[in-house]
């Protein structure tokens, strides 16, 4: 084994791409330090090239997760000011980490009467944008540079693994799965793309509701989410997601976040049933943010969760509108959300 050490000029470049782990003959984990660095860097680099920002400019965004951390890291490195608007759901440890990088974190204390915290955060963000004239809003849910950035990841996968038959990942903004799948299908048009969501997320038609899992799911529909990318969609409960996150750590030593655990559960199931096909799943971050929740027995007990209640097979549904309580999957068939909803309504009318 020959060592080929790399020397990087900055930390972000050293961790921009994931490490690849072979978990079984046909199953690979793509484990990121912080996946959101990839779109955040791509968006800011393009904004700089287009003359929209320069050193000293203010980058302002609404976020409660790792996209905010990625922006704070990059702004610190490139000399931009950073203002992040969030709400009380923001992890205090993550807030401390972001602020230690020099970013300002503005917590909206009360939800709006219409639109809840999402509306209140957007209103506060617009106040900051109006106040700071030399400002830029990355708009991760609407900026098509988000999915475009994942052409780099697709090239990385193709170079390392060759033909990929199935890509599996969780969906929050839709950027990673839509962008990576789009570019991988230029090499293999038949590649399966499987999206993993959480129950009570509106992204694939579930009614909005309380969610415990961070990093996937949403209460608003991102403009960049292209539903026609997906062949299958799986919904997991918090219990199943957290149990899988612990399992991948116990069985393979991979210390990943809850989104990685959710993707692993679905990918393991698919790979076992397609032993001759190469399966890759995405782990978007490491497990350190989850030490005081997912990996904490006291926190799990306080949420009345039973992580031993595992389901080896998903329930099959023909409608995303149905109430779900456990792992459920649907043959999405690369359709729009509207097509899926309309097909469900037509089936109900026929049955009536």
TrEMBL record:
Superkingdom of the organism of origin: Bacteria
Start and end residues of each Tryptophan synthase beta chain-like PALP domain: 35-282
Keywords: Plasmid, Pyridoxal phosphate
Keyword NAD in annotation: no
Cofactor(s) demanded: pyridoxal 5'-phosphate
Pfam families: PALP (PF00291)
GO BP terms, alphabetized: alpha-amino acid metabolic process
Transmembrane recorded as keyword: no
Protein name: Cystathionine beta-synthase
Organism (species): Sulfuriferula nivalis
């Amino acid at each position: 084994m020959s060592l080929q050490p790399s020397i990087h000029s900055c930390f972000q470049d050293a961790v921009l791409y994931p490490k690849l782990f072979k978990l079984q003959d046909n199953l690979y984990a793509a484990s990121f330090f912080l996946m959101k660095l990839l779109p955040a860097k791509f968006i800011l680099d393009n904004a700089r090239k287009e003359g929209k920002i320069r050193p000293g400019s203010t980058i302002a965004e609404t976020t409660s997760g790792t996209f905010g951390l990625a922006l704070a890291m990059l702004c610190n490195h490139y000399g931009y000011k950073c203002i992040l608007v969030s709400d009380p759901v923001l992890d205090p440890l993550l807030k401390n980490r972001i602020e230690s990088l020099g970013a300002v974190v503005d917590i909206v204390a009360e939800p709006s009467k219409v639109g809840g915290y999402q509306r209140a955060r957007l209103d506060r963000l617009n106040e900051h944008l109006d106040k700071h004239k030399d400002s830029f809003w990355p708009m991760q849910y609407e900026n098509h540079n988000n999915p475009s950035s994942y052409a780099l990841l697709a090239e990385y996968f193709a170079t390392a693994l060759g033909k990929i038959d199935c890509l599996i990942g969780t969906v929050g903004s839709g950027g990673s799965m839509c962008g990576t799948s789009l570019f991988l299908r230029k090499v293999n048009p038949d590649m399966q793309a499987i999206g993993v969501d959480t129950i009570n997320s509106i992204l694939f038609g579930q009614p909005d509701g309380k969610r415990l899992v961070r990093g996937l799911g949403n209460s608003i529909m991102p403009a960049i989410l292209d539903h026609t990318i997906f062949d299958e969609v799986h919904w997991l409960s918090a219990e199943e997601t957290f149990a899988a996150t612990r399992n991948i750590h116990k069985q393979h030593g991979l210390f990943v976040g809850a989104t990685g655990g959710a993707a692993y559960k679905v990918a393991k199931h698919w790979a076992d049933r397609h032993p001759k096909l190469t399966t890759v799943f995405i782990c978007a971050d490491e497990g350190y943010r989850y030490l005081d929740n997912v990996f904490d027995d006291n926190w799990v007990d306080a949420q009345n969760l039973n992580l031993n209640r595992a389901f080896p097979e998903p329930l099959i549904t023909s409608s995303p509108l149905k109430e779900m309580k456990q792992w459920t999957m649907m043959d999405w068939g690369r359709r729009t959300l509207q097509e899926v909803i309309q097909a469900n309504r037509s089936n109900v009318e026929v049955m009536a």
